[in-house]
C-alpha cells in the first residue's frame, strides 16, 4: 500500500525553443504583416518604392524635382476642375492622413466610451476602421461593425461620436452615401462594372460622415432660374458636403414643418424661384393660399394664377376648384397614362399653403373647416398622379392639427421645439438616425433635415435665402400669363385689381420638358406615346 505522503506528482517535461527559432518566428510574423500591409495599400507602397529608387539613382534632386512638378500639376488640376481634384487626389490623400493621425489615435477610447465595444471570449472586440475619405467639408469613415451589431446602435450615439472626435455633427448611414456617377464614353461599361462593385450592398459596414467644416453656416444665395424646370431635380438647398440638394417634385406632395422664424419662407420661395421659368411659359400654375393676410406671399402676386389671403371662403373655393381640375383630368387621362405630363395647355398645378393649421385646426367655422379638410384629403390622396400637387408649411405637426400628414411623401423638418415633433414630420425613428431638428442653433435659419431618396437616412441642408428685392425682381421677370384657355374661370379673387400679365405663348413644339423627365415618363408608359 502506498500512503498519501508517498504520492509523487509527475509533471511533463518543459519544452524550450532555442533562441534562433524564436527570432525566426518573430521575423516571419512581422514580415507577413508587412507584406499584407503592402498588398492592402498598393498606392502607398508604390510611392515609397518610387521615392527610394529616385533617391538612389539621382540623390536629393530626384525627390525635390518630382515633388515640385507634382505640386504644380496639382495646383493646375485644382484650378481647372476642383471637384475631380478632391475626388481623385486630395480626398484620398487627406483621408489617409486623418485616418492615421486623427481617428486611429482615439479609436479604441471613442468606441469603448460610446458603448460600441463588446467582449468575446474574455477579449475586447471593437468595430474596425477600414477607410477614411475626405472632401472640403466631410470625413466619411467606413467602419466594419462587430458581429451582432446594427447601424441603429451607431445612430443612437451619433452625438457622442461627434464630440468624441472633437466635432459638432456626425451622420450615420447604413448604405454608402452618394449615388453612383453617371458614366459616358467608350470605357463607360468598364467603369459601370467598377461602380457596381464599389456601391454594392454591404450589410456588415456602416458609414460615419463627420462634419469637419460646417458649410451651412454661410448664407446660401438663390439658385439660377432654369428656363425649363426639371421637375425631377429642382435645386433648392446646399448639402453638408457642399453639393446641391434637389427636390423631386413630380408626382409628390411636400410638407415643410418648422417653428416660428425657422426659415419656412426660404423653402417656399426657393421652390417658387426655380419654377419661375415654367410659370412664365405657362408650364406651371401656382395657386397660393396665405392665411396670414398676404404678409408672406403678396410680394410675388404677379407670379400666381390664383391667390387667396383674406377670406377663408375664397380659400375653400380655391381648393374646391383644384378638386375640379383633379376630377376632370382623372376622367380624361384614365387608361391613357399613369403620370400626368405638364404642357402649356395642360400645366402642372401646385397649390401652396403657407400655414396649414389655419385651415385645419384654428378655423372656427366648423362647416367651412370640414369643407377644406375634405378638399385637402382628396388632393393629397389622388392629386399627385394627375399633376395637382400640394406644398404645405405648418408650425405644429401634431395629428390633431394635421390629421392627414401621412399623405405627404416628401417632408422637410426645419427647427422644431420638441424632440417628438421630429418623428412627426420625418417619420418614426428619424431623430434617432441623426435628425436633431429640435437642437437647431439660433443662426440656423433655413437649415433643416430631409430624407435622401431611396434611403431612410436624414441629410442636413440649408435652403437658399430669397430677399424681398429678389422676389420683386422675380415678379417682374416671371409673371404668370393669363388668357381664355386658362384651366378654370378664375372666380372669387380677393384683390380688386389684377396685375398686368402677358398673353400665354402658344407654340406647336409640344411639351416643354427636359430630356431626363421625358425619359422617366417614357419608362412609366412602357415607351408608348403619351
UniProtKB/TrEMBL annotation:
It comes from the Bacteria. The chain crosses the membrane at residues 20-39, 51-77, 83-101. Residues 494-530 are annotated as: Disordered. Residues 233-423 form the FtsK domain. One of its GO terms (biological process) is cell division. ATP binds at residues 258-265. InterPro entries: FtsK/SpoIIIE/SftA, FtsK_dom, P-loop_NTPase. Residues 520-530 have a biased composition (Basic and acidic residues). Keywords: ATP-binding, Cell cycle, Cell division, Membrane, Nucleotide-binding, Transmembrane, Transmembrane helix. This is Hypothetical cell division FtsK/SpoIIIE protein. It comes from Micromonospora lutea. The lineage of its organism: Bacteria, Bacillati, Actinomycetota, Actinomycetes, Micromonosporales.
